[in-house]
Amino acid sequence: MGPPPLATLSPQIAMTMTITSIFILSFCCGCASAATFQPRPQAGPFKKMYAFGDSYTDTGNTGSATGPSGFNYVSNLPYGRTFFHHSTNRYSDGRLVIDFAAQSLSLPYLPPYLRHINSNQKSSSMGVNFAVAGSTAIIHSFFVKNNLTLNITPQSLQNQLTWFNNFLESQGCKGGGGPTTTTTTTQCNAAINGALFWVGEIGANDYAYTIGSTVSGTTIQQLAIKSVTGFLQALLTKGAKYIVVQGLPTTGCLPLALALAPENDRDDMGCVASVNKQSYSHNAVLQSKLQDLRARFPHAVIVYADYWNACRNVMKNSAKYGFKEPFKACCGAGGGPYNFQAFSACGSPSSTSCPDPSHYINWDGVHLTEAMYKVLADSFLNGSFSHPPFQSLLTRNKHAAPGLYY
User: Fold this and answer.
1) How many Å apart are CA 181 and CA 165, to the nearest integer?
2) Which neighbouring-strand residues pair with 156?
3) Which of 38, 149, 161, 228 is 20 to 30 A from 134 via CA?
């Protein structure tokens, strides 16, 4: 059964998606770094991991120093309060899906790329995180051409690929790997073989930045997915054999969207139907393209992490997972059913944070709590929301060790 048609967005939803874009807009080179933790002593199934994406995956490539007024407190508490007990520039109270994935695979939490280059480190033996809050799938020049550059970060998935190529060169892999590599393959193999490539959700910003413009949602879908598939093809050509690709989440379930959307625009989850349908449609096309890549690169395992349906499962069964507040932001202002006010962001003087974030799905109105990210990570790594199952990566990896743990 195909995805439902895209609904026409009302002015209120247009405002919702426009403001939603600020949750991933901050970018700075001098922001605070995340703590790095040593892996468990046991040998893990993968030698290293590389991550890409936006603020749902960014572990410190962005911060609040030059960010927008909506979420410019990410570099301070209460961000990071639950696990790190200080801000690490993660847009949450604690760990993200990528952190739980690293921990489960006996890898350290991935250092952000900008910390790697700013500290003049010559190697990062167990991986790097290239994800950037505010990143788009489509290259930034597209938004410039269409006069859609107001308060938009210039970083795109293409920039992250460039950063990755630069990183490979810093490891002695001249030419970035692949058929055009100008050095011996030893250094490239050391950097790529046995690595897990985790591509976090990417594309939500592309839709948000163009709401209210003459650029259609269909155009954004086509260009964003073309960019993602081109990015994946580049990784596969370099020799990547183990890749996880996350789809878009149920962005219509964010308190921000719910607070601004008309009450008659709801789906069976109680979320904004028109926004969720857009993400669902995007994911359906993305999955088709992943199947094409699997046929072209049969040596690789490409796992689709079904973010949308994993979120839906939790939203429909929130009490089962220990969540008492499926729609309300833990950290925010205004109270009411959503506890969200666009100009009283989490961390601002007028905001407060709840006593126990583990009872909340949403952290600050647009980002999720550590508790929710943990449930989602388990859904991908050990549950039924990865296709093929995540275990298939371990089966194909000759270095795989049994059992995943947190």
Assistant:
1) 11
2) 136
3) 38
Residues composing the chain:
406
pLDDT level of residue 396 (50, 70, 90 thresholds): confident
Q: Cis peptide leading into 388, omega within 30 of 0?
A: yes
Q: Which domains does the chain have, with CATH numbers?
A: 11-316+378-396 (3.40.50)
Supply the angle between the helices 217-238 and 157-170 in degrees, to the nearest 10: 10
Q: What are phi and psi of 101, to 5 degrees?
A: -65, -45
User: Which of 367, 286, 404, 397 lies closest to 78, judged by CA?
Assistant: 367
pLDDT tens digits, residue range 56-67?
Answer: 999 999 876 543
pLDDT band at 228; cut points 50, 70, 90 = very high
In the set 93, 306, 364, 378, the catalytic residue is 364
pLDDT of amino acid 44:
83
Say which of 99, 367, 378, 379 is annotated catalytic.
367
* Omega before 255 within 30 of 0, i.e. cis: no
Q: Report how far residue 311's alpha carbon sits from residue 220's, in angstroms, rounded to the nearest whole number.
A: 23
pTM, two decimals, is: 0.87
Calculate mean pLDDT across residues 301-321.
Answer: 98
**Burial (CB count within 10 angstroms: exposed 0-12, middle 13-18, buried 19+), residue 134:** buried
Active site residue 379: no
- Across the strands, what pairs with 112? 129
Backbone angles phi, psi at 331, to 5 degrees: -110, 115
Distance, in Å, from the CA atom of 238 to the CA atom of 98, rounded to the nearest integer, reads: 22
Secondary structure of residue 158 in the 3-state scheme: helix
242-246 sheet: strands from edge to edge: 127-129, 48-52, 195-199, 242-246, 301-305, 386-387
Mean pLDDT over 258-263 rounds to 92
**Residue 364 bears catalytic tag:** yes
Question: Choosing from 55, 274, 351, 379, which is the catalytic residue?
Answer: 55
Q: For the residues of 311-335, what is the DSSP string, one character each?
A: HHHHHHTGGGGT-SEEEEESEESS-
